[in-house]
Amino acid sequence: MSTAHEHPLDRANPLAAIEAAAAAVRNWGRWRDEDVLGTLNFIDDAKRAEAAGLIRRGTSFSLAQSFDGDGPQNGWRRRTNPVHTMLDTGADAALGNQGFPHGLGGADDVVSMPLQASTQWDGLGHIFDRGLAWNGRPAETVVTSEGDLVTGIEHTKDSFVSRGVLLDVGALLGASLGTPGELPDGYAITPDDLDATIAAQGPSAAVGRGDLLLVRTGRLARARREGWKDYAGGPSAGLSFTTAGWLHSREVAGVATDTWGFEVRPNEFDDAFQPLHQIAIPNMGLSIGELWDLDALAGDCSRDGRFDFFLVAAPIPFTGAVGAPVNPIAIK
Amino acid sequence: MSTAHEHPLDRANPLAAIEAAAAAVRNWGRWRDEDVLGTLNFIDDAKRAEAAGLIRRGTSFSLAQSFDGDGPQNGWRRRTNPVHTMLDTGADAALGNQGFPHGLGGADDVVSMPLQASTQWDGLGHIFDRGLAWNGRPAETVVTSEGDLVTGIEHTKDSFVSRGVLLDVGALLGASLGTPGELPDGYAITPDDLDATIAAQGPSAAVGRGDLLLVRTGRLARARREGWKDYAGGPSAGLSFTTAGWLHSREVAGVATDTWGFEVRPNEFDDAFQPLHQIAIPNMGLSIGELWDLDALAGDCSRDGRFDFFLVAAPIPFTGAVGAPVNPIAIK
Amino acid sequence: MSTAHEHPLDRANPLAAIEAAAAAVRNWGRWRDEDVLGTLNFIDDAKRAEAAGLIRRGTSFSLAQSFDGDGPQNGWRRRTNPVHTMLDTGADAALGNQGFPHGLGGADDVVSMPLQASTQWDGLGHIFDRGLAWNGRPAETVVTSEGDLVTGIEHTKDSFVSRGVLLDVGALLGASLGTPGELPDGYAITPDDLDATIAAQGPSAAVGRGDLLLVRTGRLARARREGWKDYAGGPSAGLSFTTAGWLHSREVAGVATDTWGFEVRPNEFDDAFQPLHQIAIPNMGLSIGELWDLDALAGDCSRDGRFDFFLVAAPIPFTGAVGAPVNPIAIK
Amino acid sequence: MSTAHEHPLDRANPLAAIEAAAAAVRNWGRWRDEDVLGTLNFIDDAKRAEAAGLIRRGTSFSLAQSFDGDGPQNGWRRRTNPVHTMLDTGADAALGNQGFPHGLGGADDVVSMPLQASTQWDGLGHIFDRGLAWNGRPAETVVTSEGDLVTGIEHTKDSFVSRGVLLDVGALLGASLGTPGELPDGYAITPDDLDATIAAQGPSAAVGRGDLLLVRTGRLARARREGWKDYAGGPSAGLSFTTAGWLHSREVAGVATDTWGFEVRPNEFDDAFQPLHQIAIPNMGLSIGELWDLDALAGDCSRDGRFDFFLVAAPIPFTGAVGAPVNPIAIK
Fold first, then answer.
1. What residue of C is the nearest CA neighbor of B83?
2. In angstroms, what separates the C-alpha of C153 from chain A's closest C-alpha?
3. Cα dihedral angle (C85, C90, C94, C95), rounded to 10 degrees?
4. What is the ipTM, given to two decimal places?
5. For the segment C174-231, what is each residue's pLDDT rounded down to a tens digit?
6. Beta carbons of A148 and A138 less than 8 angstroms apart
7. What is this structure's pTM?
8. Residue A75: pLDDT band by 50, 70, 90 thresholds?
9. Helix (H, G, I), strand (E, B), or coil: what is residue A16?
10. CB contact under 8 A, B69 and C81
11. Which helix or strand (DSSP H or E) is residue A62 part of?
């Protein structure tokens, strides 16, 4: 099923493919010169009000992986797992070490972490294409050592509320690929695969304007079973470079997956690094979510046959951040 | 209006008051011995489904303050403001310093911060009463140097979804107190004040089982106007110690305010430190939110006369944390 | 005594003064194109062997200020004081929380800090002059988001061992300026002042090739008495811009002071920021030390009349750092 | 040569061995009740003055390993490698992003790290024996969540200056063990081995009161050749548990090695964890150094036949720290 239609790939010529795809999906100027939201502009109040109608049972699902030292990060580009330490503890409270009156005791804590250590949204300042950031701004004027001065994640603090749709490609295709429930490493999910999954899942899986699309590969389920190993940066199923046009034409507001890197790895060119990011973030202005945990939600969707839901996935609005942790909540 | 009915205070005898209030509202064993959620148990699917009906226009409000170095923290008990630094920048991308192929550039970042530096939920392991944590567990077995081994915030990752209700006490009482729109420092909000606000705001402000109650004092509005000064730890309006019984009898799931410390400061006893925390967290099992930004939401509620809404306030689920940052989203 | 001879200052024209001073003292190419040490090249084995002869009594003096949360940093340019937290404690050990066998208990800790939070050496990559770093290298090729790729402080790890000389200008001039033992804020120490101090202190205070020069203003003594206040970044005595030539001609290897900023503040031009840094670091290649505690050593030197000593001031060699903490040890 | 004389080991009964060894070498009360220095008390001015006579050529050797993200830490007990990030860079300076006048540009940086991530001294609060810290103090009163309130490393800030002696056991015994220049993993260095090394190296290797003893196993040399692998926490040569008495009787002030853990690993009992630490730190009050780089110094000592030198190894005096980074400088 991995036949790519929209942008057939010449593995040996990534730059030409990148140039063509970028030109085809570029949204610069689509909203306004000052825009800092990109495809989040597809979400409006009407969209959110309509999505609220998807809440029936009232069941909530956290789509966050854990945030702790036992995570997938391995130091690549200085990304470590969160280091959580205590400023005060119950042990000290019990021993009377704290100096509070009348039996009050307290515990307090700090964390040190890369903002993309675990479940996160990439900000629009996370990736540049040939020196340019979202909306065509020079990268060096957008993200300096002081952070993202223009498109910091704080601008999206109330934006990530919309209809969510889960496409469980791993469940649909895994069995036929010899890995039931999961896609094998290196499997590039094509536009046809997305369409086939929608068709198989039924009308609740239709994808359209303003949706937050969640694509499950099963990669996290495997990591949970076998250990993290090279979950971060290593081989994985993921979206094909050829899905750029599909995502563009559906006018999705954001896309998240249960993988480290959103797109397939190894990438589909002989020499490239995350080329779909290069198209999606600076050119389309698409918000990308990574390291999400879609397994419990997928199980529920499979059981009740409904693959859409109300989704609130509001990142912590660190000023100037190019990515931020999020505890996404799907409600059915 | 500051007449306290339920627990008249003897300023000189805090321990007796603490003992009495703790006994009156203690929820230990109410759910089960293994309980790690406390009053969040008041929220169930039916409550959430009903709350979803409050979404009409589809407008979303982030109730998060900013997360950056310009925050209120002043070093007290080693709480600093977040330090956000970059691992990669657009400047380096533009200068070709990064080594990625085909024009891809990237930015990445890290943060070091106390978990309660800005908008947050206290975890149930945050406060102890005479050596005991929530549900009567010995503090030293719950929160060690490795974190909260029992009631870590990760257990609540899908819990904070319910009906929210805003009581804008600052708006109601500020004018008559000489501080229009805001309560003066040291003002203790009593049960009568809460009832009066509900009465003034009308039926949408009724408070009941499973609600997430937001109490606006106006303290943040003043900090925004005048600078942080001693917002963290200094004098402030806040809930009176005497509201413990009111909160208990209404069976609220959580309470958050626009102040640093939730309860009035200075505290209402000659010698005490955050005595309402000591009642609410370890005894009631009540989730407390602090440093929220309720101003935009309050303006909207005032305009349309509806003070309840769907609230998703899911903290980042740091494993073993005794508090965690949150970007709360109210949707009307 | 504040008459500047070598570079008379036109307060209104800092750029001309900076250009002239930079040209006058520039050491680019003096050693070799690949040089990463600057004036530390003035120290050689013979110098160190000779300096060892200054050890007579065997008394050692740490010249480090404390490293903790009660330091001078105030958040300016995101410089905070060190945050020190525990990974394990004696409290947990005593309570049996650690799981080690046979009664072993342990404590462990972490720190998060700016590298120049307390007593430190500036690295050669800390300051640039019109886009150029030490030895004329383009700044953007030297210090990227990955750190100082060329002149990182690790290259100096065995260099800071030499004869130290203390010039206690505060002790000499303070009384006549109305601040006994200390210089008043804004006092610019001139070449004449340095010469006068040497003359007053006697032959052991002579300054020459390869020396590590310590200049005491008394600013720290005042902070110790009055609190930090604006010790970091505020007004202070310090070296005059006009000392660049003096330092250059004496061929000192490094200079450290008991102030935050080494040079006088406010700076001596109507509009400028640390112009002596701009001359000394990228042009001379001079190592600058800040936030040193010279008080105990000064007392001893005053008592025995000997102002030189063996000095070992080896920074922690963080790879790629543009500054690093040091615990300097003077031995007499 | 691994015959242990002083404390023959019963592998099956570590607690009895620990009790006996602790009693045999315990220095509690040897100096004074308030003592916070332990065996560093063996160093006095006369010792330092005498040691200064060992400086002949003036050559200095840094004994620090590197401090960066490519270090040996692997997350065990939350110990990570240092994370170094930039607050400002040359790239931003070159692009004019910084706002300083007249062409001044700057770079600045921060670090987040465990204090024992790389070359370090253990503090006296690092290890406890059956609930007691150095000098018999209850562990829970010494090291709380606020750090070491009694024996913090800051008390030693001017202490680590003395005669250093290198015993290159790896060089002496490696060849006969089949690993030339290095000891094999699990090799326990006995008192006899130490004596044999002294005998082989000659009079300059004599070990006595107040010396800082450096024992080279060759473990780091192997890590340099083969990669870190399990350098941190894994198998390694190191001091035998049986050396406690030898170290005690020689009255050394401190001992450091080129390994992660100072003592042999796996430990010499069937079930134990770092039992020599348990004897040496809380009972003897011995300062232990780990992760030192002794290779260049060892080469020099071998060439000139002199194994003693002046050693200045002053840790960064973090207030309340139970360990601290150090850049030790040996001068010959």
1. C78
2. 19
3. 0
4. 0.97
5. 999 999 999 999 999 999 999 999 999 999 999 999 999 999 999 999 999 999 999 9
6. no
7. 0.96
8. confident
9. helix
10. no
11. strand A60-62
Element (H, E) at C87: strand C83-88
pLDDT value at residue B8: 65
Q: Hey, what amino acid is at D37?
A: L
DSSP line for B168-215 = EHHHHHTGGGTSTTSPPTT-EE-HHHHHHHHHHH-GGG---TT-EEEE
Q: Side chain identity at B76, as an amino acid letter?
A: W
Which residues are CB-contacts of D44 (< 8 A; sequence separation ≥ 6)?
C58, D210
pLDDT band at C77 (very low <50, low <70, confident <90, very high): confident
CA-based torsion, A219, A222, A224, A230: positive or negative: negative
Which uninterrupted H or E stretch holds C110? strand C108-114
- Chain A residues whose beta carbon lies within 8 Å of the beta carbon of residue B52: 52, 55, 58, 310, 331
CB-based contact B145 C97, cutoff 8 Å? yes
State the pLDDT confidence band at A10, using cuts at 50, 70 and 90.
confident
- Determine the residue of chain C that is closest to A143 in CA distance: C145
Segment B148-197, tens digit of pLDDT: 999 999 999 999 999 999 999 999 999 999 999 999 999 999 999 999 99
The per-residue pLDDT for range B26-60, each reduced to its tens digit, is 999 999 999 999 999 999 999 999 999 999 999 99
- String of b and e for D73-100 (b: at least 16 CB within 10 Å)? bbbeebbbbbbbbbbbbbbbbbbebbeb
> H helices then E strands: how many in chain D?
10, 19
Question: For the segment D145-193, what is each residue's pLDDT rounded down to a tens digit?
Answer: 999 999 999 999 999 999 999 999 999 999 999 999 999 999 999 999 9
Residue B140 has pLDDT above 70, yes or no: yes
What pLDDT is stored for residue B76 in this prediction?
86
- Measured between beta carbons, the chain B residues lying within 8 angstroms of C91 are 140, 145
All residue ranges of chain D with pLDDT < 50 are 1-7
Q: Output the DSSP codes for C171-238.
A: HHHTGGGTSTTSPPTT-EE-HHHHHHHHHHH-GGG---TT-EEEEE-SHHHHHHHH--TTTTTS-B-E
Q: From B203, B102, B208, select the one nearest B162 (Cα to Cα).
A: B208
Query: Can you give the pLDDT at residue C6?
Result: 46
Of D86, D91, D145, the CB nearest to B85: D86
**Residue of chain A whose alpha carbon sits nearest to that of C143:** A145
State how far the Cα of B312 lies from the Cα of A331, in Å rounded to an integer.
10
Does residue C154 register a pLDDT over 80? yes
**Cβ–Cβ under 8 Å, residues C275 and C241:** yes
| Confidence at C5, pLDDT banded by 50, 70, 90 | very low
Q: Where are the alpha helices (DSSP H) in C27-136?
A: 45-52, 90-94
> From start to end of chain D, where are the E strands?
60-62, 83-88, 104-106, 108-114, 120-122, 127-129, 132-133, 137-138, 143-144, 147-148, 161-168, 188-189, 212-216, 238-239, 254-257, 287-290, 308-312, 323-325, 329-331
pLDDT over 70 percentage in chain B: 98
Closest Cβ opposite residue B145 in set C75, C81, C88:
C88
Residue C150: is it exposed, middle or buried by C-beta count within 10 angstroms (0-12/13-18/19+)? Answer: buried
Domains and CATH numbers, chain C: 4-74+114-331 (3.50.30.50), 83-112 (no CATH)
Coil, helix or strand at residue D297: helix
